[in-house]
Design brief:
This protein has two domains: about 10-60, DNA polymerase, domain 1 (Orthogonal Bundle), CATH 1.10.150; about 70-330, TIM Barrel. The longest helix has 15 residues, at about 135-150. The protein has helices at about 15-20, 30-40, 55-60, 135-150, 165-180, 200-205, 220-230, 235-250, 270-280, 305-315; strands at about 70-75, 80-85, 90-100, 105, 110-115, 130, 155, 190-195, 210-215, 255-260, 285-290, 320-325. It contains ten helices and twelve strands.
């Protein structure tokens, strides 16, 4: 049975400050509560042992304390791990832990499902269930760290969902992840990946933290992009380029343009020429992603020679570019492969 009591993990930092102020608590209690929630990951208010007993009781009366339950885990031959989490309302989400030497990257979800409908992506096939709370995002990072017994060095909002369709909660989660009272991940090691929601990009460029931005481009030809990404067809490419250029000027940071190469769709010389024109004169980095297999999508990756030729075309034109080395493909944990799953 789902509790009607509000979940404390729905609150951002100012919300926690207000909640404790309303209880007459001194300001230093805020850091204590955040540390228990997102530094130590407790599952009950009674575990917050440096808080007065009265305060713990007051919090327990006023708030639920939701937690993720691990429903399933898969381990790839390359060491990547995919997690299926069950939330308090029985909604499920997926996230991925990607170890590399002494680094651990967590790909976390910002929504259960997705409304963007990108044709090559498994997440949107069943539509959007709901947006996640800030704490439900942070808890994915904490859960992966605990399972892999390792500190998380990077976290990327590249799992299920469109982060800028859940902007406030996503930013609150990033701030908890960055906090010295939380996982304390460096701001430049926290990345948001968006399909290109212009209002979100413009807001993000004005944020004080040095969080990084990635944008799913996938084509610099409007008709091709609209076909691949119908959920953002209302945002013209010239306006997207303008917003990205302004982001670079305002922040001094280089946005990453993600480009999933789909054979016969966006891997032609015409597409390459359009991409070069889009990037030229703008601070950016292109990350080429040979599309991953997704049942029912009809999308297939180009051969390796075509991928290399596409990359060479970009670098020859002076465009910074890389080819993503995918991890976890054998357990459907790679880019575009996370999906909404239902427990029986």
């Amino acid at each position: 049975m789902i509790s009607a009591t509000p979940d404390i993990k729905a609150l951002d930092l100012p919300g926690i400050e207000s909640a404790l102020a309303a209880l007459g608590q001194p300001r230093f209690r805020v850091r204590q509560v955040v540390r228990w929630l997102y530094g130590r990951g407790v599952t009950g208010f009674d575990e917050m042992t440096d808080l007065p007993g009265v305060l713990r009781s007051q919090l327990a009366e006023r708030y639920a304390l939701g937690r993720l339950v691990l429903a399933a885990k898969e381990v790839s031959a390359d060491g990547t791990r995919k997690y299926l989490w069950e939330l308090a309302d029985k909604t499920t989400i997926e996230s991925v832990g990607i170890p590399a030497g002494d680094r651990l990257t967590v790909c976390f979800s910002t929504q259960a499902g997705c409304a963007m409908g990108c044709t090559f992506c498994a997440t949107g096939q069943d539509g959007l269930t709901r947006s996640l709370l800030p704490g439900e995002m942070v808890d994915q990072v904490l859960g992966v760290a605990a399972d892999m017994n390792s500190r998380v060095s990077n976290a990327v909002a590249m799992g299920q969902g469109e982060p800028f369709a859940n902007y406030d909660a996503t930013l609150a989660a990033l701030r908890f992840m960055n906090s010295p009272d939380g996982p304390e991940i460096g701001a430049r090691h926290l990345t948001v990946s968006t399909c290109g929601l212009l209002p979100g990009i413009r807001r993000f460029s004005a944020e004080p933290e040095q969080f990084t931005l990635a944008v799913s481009l996938h084509s610099a030809i409007q008709s091709t992009r609209d076909k691949l990404m119908p959920g953002v067809a209302r945002y013209p490419l010239d306006q997207l380029r303008e917003a990205l250029a302004a982001y670079g000027v305002r922040t001094g940071r280089r946005p990453t343009l993600e480009f999933a190469l789909v054979a016969g769709t966006n891997d032609s010389d015409v597409e390459l020429k359009a991409l070069i024109a889009f990037c030229r004169g703008m601070l950016c980095h292109v990350n080429l992603i040979p599309v991953n297999p997704v049942a029912g999508s009809g999308a297939h990756r180009p051969d390796d020679a075509r991928v290399r030729a596409f990359a060479l075309g970009l670098t020859s034109a002076g465009i910074e570019c890389s080819i993503r080395t995918e991890r976890g493909v054998d357990i459907s944990a790679a880019c575009g492969q996370l999906r909404q799953r239902h427990l029986s």
